[in-house]
Specification:
The chain is built from 7 helices and 4 strands; from the N terminus they run E-E-H-H-E-E-H-H-H-H-H. With 199 residues, the protein is α+β, with helices and mostly antiparallel strands. The protein has a domain of 76 residues.
Protein backbone atom coordinates (compact mmCIF):
# COMPACT_ATOMS: atom_id res chain seq x y z
CA UNK A 1 0.00 0.00 0.00
CA UNK A 2 1.52 3.30 -1.11
CA UNK A 3 0.39 6.91 -0.88
CA UNK A 4 1.98 10.37 -0.69
CA UNK A 5 1.79 13.08 1.96
CA UNK A 6 3.33 16.47 1.21
CA UNK A 7 5.67 15.07 -1.41
CA UNK A 8 6.78 12.17 0.80
CA UNK A 9 5.93 8.69 -0.46
CA UNK A 10 4.76 6.35 2.30
CA UNK A 11 4.80 2.61 1.70
CA UNK A 12 3.29 -0.03 4.00
CA UNK A 13 4.11 -3.70 3.59
CA UNK A 14 1.27 -6.05 4.49
CA UNK A 15 3.82 -8.09 6.42
CA UNK A 16 4.36 -5.03 8.63
CA UNK A 17 0.69 -5.01 9.62
CA UNK A 18 0.76 -8.78 10.14
CA UNK A 19 3.80 -8.56 12.42
CA UNK A 20 2.30 -5.74 14.52
CA UNK A 21 -1.00 -7.63 14.82
CA UNK A 22 0.76 -10.83 15.92
CA UNK A 23 2.90 -9.01 18.47
CA UNK A 24 -0.11 -7.31 20.04
CA UNK A 25 -2.27 -10.44 19.86
CA UNK A 26 0.16 -12.57 21.85
CA UNK A 27 1.44 -9.78 24.12
CA UNK A 28 0.35 -10.79 27.61
CA UNK A 29 2.99 -8.80 29.51
CA UNK A 30 2.77 -5.50 27.65
CA UNK A 31 6.38 -5.75 26.47
CA UNK A 32 5.50 -5.74 22.75
CA UNK A 33 3.19 -2.75 23.13
CA UNK A 34 5.91 -0.88 25.03
CA UNK A 35 8.44 -1.76 22.33
CA UNK A 36 6.16 -0.51 19.56
CA UNK A 37 5.50 2.72 21.47
CA UNK A 38 9.25 3.25 21.99
CA UNK A 39 9.89 2.59 18.29
CA UNK A 40 7.17 5.08 17.32
CA UNK A 41 8.72 7.72 19.59
CA UNK A 42 12.14 6.98 18.07
CA UNK A 43 11.01 7.44 14.47
CA UNK A 44 8.83 10.47 15.25
CA UNK A 45 11.86 12.13 16.82
CA UNK A 46 13.86 11.59 13.62
CA UNK A 47 11.03 13.04 11.55
CA UNK A 48 10.53 15.98 13.92
CA UNK A 49 14.18 17.01 13.72
CA UNK A 50 14.17 16.57 9.94
CA UNK A 51 11.12 18.81 9.75
CA UNK A 52 12.85 21.41 11.96
CA UNK A 53 15.82 21.34 9.57
CA UNK A 54 13.46 21.62 6.57
CA UNK A 55 14.86 18.36 5.24
CA UNK A 56 11.84 16.10 4.94
CA UNK A 57 12.31 12.52 3.71
CA UNK A 58 11.61 11.41 0.17
CA UNK A 59 10.08 8.15 1.32
CA UNK A 60 9.09 6.26 4.47
CA UNK A 61 8.86 2.47 4.21
CA UNK A 62 7.14 0.32 6.82
CA UNK A 63 8.31 -3.27 6.37
CA UNK A 64 8.71 -6.43 8.42
CA UNK A 65 12.24 -5.40 9.47
CA UNK A 66 11.18 -1.96 10.75
CA UNK A 67 10.87 1.52 9.33
CA UNK A 68 13.19 2.93 6.67
CA UNK A 69 13.38 6.71 6.30
CA UNK A 70 14.83 7.60 2.90
CA UNK A 71 16.30 11.08 3.16
CA UNK A 72 16.81 13.53 0.33
CA UNK A 73 20.15 13.96 -1.42
CA UNK A 74 23.01 14.82 0.91
CA UNK A 75 24.16 18.06 -0.81
CA UNK A 76 21.04 19.79 0.55
CA UNK A 77 22.14 19.14 4.14
CA UNK A 78 25.22 19.56 6.28
CA UNK A 79 26.99 16.75 8.10
CA UNK A 80 26.29 18.34 11.50
CA UNK A 81 22.58 18.22 10.73
CA UNK A 82 22.91 14.63 9.56
CA UNK A 83 24.51 13.69 12.89
CA UNK A 84 21.79 15.48 14.87
CA UNK A 85 19.04 13.77 12.86
CA UNK A 86 20.67 10.38 13.42
CA UNK A 87 21.11 10.90 17.17
CA UNK A 88 17.66 12.40 17.76
CA UNK A 89 15.94 9.00 17.85
CA UNK A 90 18.21 7.43 20.49
CA UNK A 91 18.18 10.71 22.45
CA UNK A 92 14.38 10.67 22.59
CA UNK A 93 14.42 7.08 23.85
CA UNK A 94 17.02 7.90 26.51
CA UNK A 95 15.00 10.91 27.68
CA UNK A 96 11.81 8.84 27.80
CA UNK A 97 13.57 6.06 29.74
CA UNK A 98 14.83 8.63 32.24
CA UNK A 99 11.36 10.13 32.69
CA UNK A 100 9.74 6.72 33.16
CA UNK A 101 12.45 5.87 35.70
CA UNK A 102 11.97 9.09 37.70
CA UNK A 103 8.17 8.89 37.68
CA UNK A 104 8.09 5.12 37.71
CA UNK A 105 5.25 2.87 38.64
CA UNK A 106 4.73 -0.83 38.02
CA UNK A 107 3.03 -0.07 34.69
CA UNK A 108 5.93 2.15 33.54
CA UNK A 109 8.65 -0.49 33.94
CA UNK A 110 8.10 -1.95 30.47
CA UNK A 111 8.19 1.51 28.89
CA UNK A 112 11.41 2.38 30.71
CA UNK A 113 13.11 -0.87 29.66
CA UNK A 114 11.85 -0.69 26.07
CA UNK A 115 13.10 2.86 25.59
CA UNK A 116 16.45 2.20 27.26
CA UNK A 117 17.00 -0.99 25.25
CA UNK A 118 16.18 0.82 22.00
CA UNK A 119 18.61 3.59 22.97
CA UNK A 120 21.43 1.14 23.72
CA UNK A 121 20.85 -0.77 20.49
CA UNK A 122 20.61 2.21 18.13
CA UNK A 123 23.49 4.19 19.63
CA UNK A 124 25.98 1.44 18.71
CA UNK A 125 28.45 2.72 16.07
CA UNK A 126 27.41 0.08 13.54
CA UNK A 127 26.70 1.18 9.98
CA UNK A 128 22.97 0.37 9.64
CA UNK A 129 22.17 1.89 13.05
CA UNK A 130 21.82 5.52 14.10
CA UNK A 131 25.16 5.46 15.91
CA UNK A 132 26.92 4.37 12.73
CA UNK A 133 25.13 7.03 10.70
CA UNK A 134 26.13 9.73 13.20
CA UNK A 135 29.73 8.49 13.27
CA UNK A 136 29.91 8.66 9.48
CA UNK A 137 28.53 12.21 9.41
CA UNK A 138 30.98 13.39 12.08
CA UNK A 139 33.95 11.75 10.34
CA UNK A 140 32.95 13.44 7.07
CA UNK A 141 33.57 16.81 8.75
CA UNK A 142 37.31 16.02 8.54
CA UNK A 143 37.67 13.13 6.11
CA UNK A 144 36.61 12.31 2.57
CA UNK A 145 33.28 10.39 2.47
CA UNK A 146 34.99 7.28 1.08
CA UNK A 147 37.50 7.24 3.96
CA UNK A 148 34.72 7.85 6.49
CA UNK A 149 32.73 4.97 5.00
CA UNK A 150 35.72 2.61 5.33
CA UNK A 151 36.32 3.72 8.92
CA UNK A 152 32.70 3.11 9.89
CA UNK A 153 32.88 -0.34 8.29
CA UNK A 154 35.92 -1.20 10.41
CA UNK A 155 34.35 0.16 13.61
CA UNK A 156 31.14 -1.74 12.82
CA UNK A 157 33.05 -5.02 12.54
CA UNK A 158 35.02 -4.32 15.74
CA UNK A 159 31.75 -3.90 17.64
CA UNK A 160 29.86 -6.73 15.95
CA UNK A 161 32.55 -9.38 16.46
CA UNK A 162 32.50 -9.31 20.29
CA UNK A 163 28.72 -8.88 20.32
CA UNK A 164 28.40 -12.02 18.20
CA UNK A 165 30.72 -13.88 20.57
CA UNK A 166 28.53 -12.82 23.50
CA UNK A 167 25.50 -14.00 21.52
CA UNK A 168 27.09 -17.45 21.03
CA UNK A 169 28.03 -17.68 24.72
CA UNK A 170 24.54 -16.62 25.77
CA UNK A 171 23.00 -19.28 23.53
CA UNK A 172 25.44 -21.88 24.89
CA UNK A 173 24.69 -21.09 28.54
CA UNK A 174 20.96 -20.39 28.06
CA UNK A 175 19.59 -22.68 25.32
CA UNK A 176 16.80 -20.95 23.45
CA UNK A 177 18.09 -17.45 24.18
CA UNK A 178 19.19 -16.63 20.63
CA UNK A 179 17.93 -13.04 20.28
CA UNK A 180 21.31 -11.28 20.47
CA UNK A 181 22.93 -13.76 18.08
CA UNK A 182 20.15 -13.33 15.49
CA UNK A 183 20.41 -9.54 15.72
CA UNK A 184 24.18 -9.72 15.15
CA UNK A 185 23.76 -12.05 12.16
CA UNK A 186 21.14 -9.70 10.70
CA UNK A 187 23.43 -6.68 11.10
CA UNK A 188 26.37 -8.56 9.59
CA UNK A 189 24.25 -9.47 6.56
CA UNK A 190 23.34 -5.82 6.12
CA UNK A 191 27.01 -4.86 6.31
CA UNK A 192 27.97 -7.42 3.67
CA UNK A 193 25.11 -7.02 1.20
CA UNK A 194 24.32 -3.33 1.63
CA UNK A 195 27.79 -1.95 2.20
CA UNK A 196 27.73 1.85 2.06
CA UNK A 197 24.03 2.01 1.13
CA UNK A 198 23.10 3.84 4.33
CA UNK A 199 25.08 7.02 3.69
Amino acid sequence: MTFSVGGCRITFSYFFFALVALLLLFDRSGVAAAGLAAAALHECSHLGVMYAFKSLPEEIRFNIFGIDIVRNSRPDRGYWKDAVVSLSGPAANLLAAGLFYVFRSAADRNMMLANFTLFLFNILPIEPLDGGQALYALLCLRWEPSAACRAVGIVSFLFLAPLSAVGFLTLFHSPGNYTLLLVCIYLMCLLVFKRGKYF
